[in-house]
Amino acid sequence: MPVQTRPSTLRRLGLYAATGAVAVLTAAGPALAVAEDPARPQTENAASHMTYKGRVTAKTGLLLRDRPTRSSRIIGSKPYGAIVHIFCKTSGQYVNGNSRWYLLTNGTWAWASAAYIANIGPAPRWC
């Protein structure tokens, strides 16, 4: 199994800032919406706001965390078979040989290991 190194502090801070910015923009809703550019194709605009879905495959349930590591604080859980909404993916601590972590948007922003989520449709974009 490859050795996982800790991401740099700057990278983690950037990820936290990006996550916070997304949360603020999402909470603000239409108040911060950018005017539509008639020259831009509608498919590009729709794809930029796309959320992805997955199904929890962990028999004992999926733990939701505040960072993409197994040692971070648990902030919730999802039962086996639950459908989760995925905003994006990033690299994090390895779990069962898989370093991908998904940022979930199910009512709260939380990280979950992709090792326990089966994608429904296309794989999520990078954060």
Folded structure, characterized:
The protein has 127 residues and is an alpha+beta fold. The protein has one domain (9-120): SH3 type barrels (Roll), CATH 2.30.30.40. Helices cover 21% and strands 33% of the residues. The chain contains two helices and seven strands. It has helices at 9-28, 42-48, and strands spanning 52-56, 62-65, 74-78, 83-95, 98-104, 110-113, 117-120. A hairpin with an 8-residue loop joins strand 2 and strand 3. Mean pLDDT is 75; it is low at 3-15 and 21-47.
How many DSSP H or I helices?
2
**Sheet/helix structural class:** alpha+beta
CATH fold type: SH3 type barrels
| CATH class placement | Mainly Beta
Brief digest:
This protein has 127 residues and is α+β, with helices and mostly antiparallel strands. Helix content is 21%, strand content 33%.
Record keyword descriptors for this entry.
127 residues, SH3 type barrels, five-stranded antiparallel beta sheet, two-stranded antiparallel ribbon, disordered N terminus
List the helices and strands and how they pair.
Elements lengths: L8 H20 L13 H7 L3 E5 L5 E4 L8 E5 L4 E13 L2 E7 L5 E4 L3 E4 L7
